Automatic annotation (TrEMBL):
This is N-acetyltransferase. It comes from Fervidobacterium thailandense. SUPFAM superfamilies: Trimeric LpxA-like enzymes. Gene3D superfamilies: Hexapeptide repeat proteins (2.160.10.10). It comes from the Bacteria. PANTHER family: ACETYLTRANSFERASE (PTHR43300), ACYL-[ACYL-CARRIER-PROTEIN]--UDP-N-ACETYLGLUCOSAMINE O-ACYLTRANSFERASE (PTHR43300:SF4).
Length: 249
C-alpha cells in the first residue's frame, strides 16, 4: 500500500507487501525491501537501501514508569543520502541520520537521536533516545548506547559495550534529577564488554580496555584497565587518531 500523498523519486524499487504512509518523501535510486513499513512524513534521501521487514518513522510508546521517554510531537525521521539500513531494524520518528550512515540488521534507533555521516551502527545495536553520535563513529555488534549519551567523531565502541545513565538503578524519584549518559570524546575507544557508569567522561583518544568498568572520568590519551578501571599507561603515539591514514580532521 502506497498512500497517494507519497513523493517518489526516479528509479525507486519497492518490494512486496510494503506500506508507505502519507507525506513520505523518497529520493532517487532508492531500494526498498519486502515487508517494509514507512510511517507518515518520513524523509529518505537519494541512493538509500532499506532491508526487508524494517520499520521507519515509528512513534515511541511510553511505558507508565518510563523516566526518559516524553509524550510530545516529534519531527519526521530524516535519512540522508546513500544510507544503508539492514533487515529487521526499527528507526523512530524524530531522529536524523547523516549521509553514508550504515545500520546493521536488527538495530534499533530511538527518537531524538542524531547520527553523523559515515557512521556505522552494528548488528543488534540499541541506540536509546536523546543521544548524539558524531561522524565516522563505529559501534559494533550488540552494544547498548543508553539515553542521553554523547559520542563524538571517530570513536570506536566494541561489541557488547554497555553505557548507563541511572546511578539509582530505578529506585526513588530522586534519580530523575540525575540522569546522565556517558560523554565519549573524539577518537576515544571502548573495548568489548566494558561498562561505563552514568555521566562518566572519556577524554579524547583515551582507551578503555575490554571488560573494564569505568567509575571515574578518563583522561585524554590514557589507557584504563580493570574493575574498577584504573589509569594504566599512555596510548602509544602510533595509535593516536591524528596519526591514522583515515583521519580527515
Amino acid at each position: 500500500m502506497i498512500a497517494k500523498t507519497v513523493k517518489l523519486g526516479e528509479n525507486v524499487q519497492i518490494g512486496q507487501n510494503v506500506v508507505i504512509e502519507d507525506n513520505v518523501v523518497i529520493g532517487n535510486n532508492v531500494l526498498i525491501g519486502h515487508n517494509v513499513v514507512i510511517k507518515r512524513d518520513t524523509i529518505i534521501g537519494d541512493g538509500c537501501i532499506i532491508g526487508d521487514n524494517t520499520i521507519l518513522g515509528k512513534k515511541p510508546f511510553k511505558a507508565s514508569i518510563s523516566a526518559v521517554t516524553e509524550e510530545k510531537e516529534l519531527p519526521p525521521l530524516s535519512i540522508g543520502n546513500f544510507v544503508t539500513i539492514g533487515a529487521l531494524c526499527v528507526l523512530y520518528r524524530g531522529s536524523i541520520l547523516g549521509n553514508f550512515v550504515f545500520v546493521g540488521d536488527l538495530a534499533t534507533i530511538r527518537e531524538d537521536v542524531e547520527i553523523g555521516e559515515h557512521t556505522i551502527i552494528g548488528r543488534g545495536v540499541a541506540v536509546e533516545n536523546k543521544t548524539r553520535i558524531g561522524r565516522y563513529v563505529k559501534i559494533e555488534t550488540n552494544a547498548y548506547i543508553t539515553a542521553l549519551s554523547i559520542i563524538e567523531d571517530y570513536c570506536f565502541i566494541a561489541p557488547n559495550v554497555t553505557l548507563t545513565n541511572d546511578n539509582f538503578l530505578g529506585r526513588t524519584e530522586q534519580r530523575k534529577n540525575f540522569f546522565k549518559g556517558a560523554i565519549i570524546k573524539r577518537g576515544a575507544r571502548v573495548g568489548a564488554n566494558a561498562t561505563i557508569l552514568p555521566g562518566r567522561e572519556i577524554g579524547e583518544d583515551a582507551l578503555i580496555a575490554a571488560g573494564a568498568v569505568l567509575t571515574k572520568d578518563a583522561k585524554p590519551r590514557m589507557i584504563y584497565v580493570g574493575v574498577p578501571a584504573k589509569e594504566f599507561k599512555p596510548v602509544p603515539t602510533e595509535q593516536l587518531l591524528e596519526n591514522q591514514e583515515f583521519y580527515r580532521g
